[in-house]
Amino acid sequence: MLYNGNEGNANALVPGGRKFSLGDEDLTSNPANPVTGAANVSFKRVAPMLVLGWGNIIPRGNRRWSIPFELGVVFSKAPTALLSLGGSACDSNGNNCRNIATEPRLQADLAKEQATMNSDIEVLKLIPVLSLGFSYKF
Fold first, then answer.
1. Are 30 and 97 contacting, i.e. CB atoms less than 8 angstroms apart?
2. CA gap 98, 86 in Å, rounded
3. Residue ranges of the domains in the chain?
4. CA-CA distance, 53 to 67, in Å (whole number)?
5. 3-class SS of residue 86
6. What are phi and psi of 110, to 5 degrees?
7. Over the stretch 40-78, which tens digit does the pLDDT of each residue have?
8. Which among 36, 44, 43, 35 has a CA at the least distance from the CA of 17?
9. What value, to the nearest 5°, has the Cα angle with vertex 79 and ends 106 and 108?
10. Which helix (H) or strand (E) is 108 found in, with range?
11. pLDDT tens digits for 84-132?
């Protein structure tokens, strides 16, 4: 595969006062500065692919229709997830609010959460391929 444009993007918002977990901590989003975030998952752009198929794009002989079909798999490296959070998080009682971007312990929890995400999506290093086409000769 010469170009894999697959990617995933997500935005997150934890409304003020809502509880959430990050890494090993149970936290509450600060009502004055709620937690917001973004996640991005990207794949390697070039990867080997093995496919088996049947049919021709251009029909042969007097046939006008053709239905080519391919089934296979792309052998890519595991995708990588990047997670970023902003805002403030408080302990589970709503006290001791800390900025996620600057607090070292929360940054460590964020790195642990990102590592967990990368571990969870590692299975996507094998991407199934199914291709079905229709052609008509005039």
1. yes
2. 11
3. 7-136
4. 11
5. strand
6. -65, -40
7. 999 888 889 999 998 877 767 777 788 889 999 999 888
8. 35
9. 10
10. helix 104-120
11. 999 999 988 888 899 999 999 999 999 999 999 999 999 988 989 999 9
- For the full predicted model, state whether its pTM sits above 0.85: no
Contacts of 15 (CB under 8 A, 6+ apart): 29, 34
Who's near 97: CB < 8 A, 6+ residues apart?
30, 32, 33, 88, 89, 90
Q: 87: which 2 tokens?
A: 């805002």
Question: Rounded to whole angstroms, what are the CA distances from 56 to 64, 72, 136?
Answer: 12, 17, 11
pLDDT of residue 100: 92
Q: Distance between CA atoms of 58 and 138, rounded to whole angstroms? A: 11
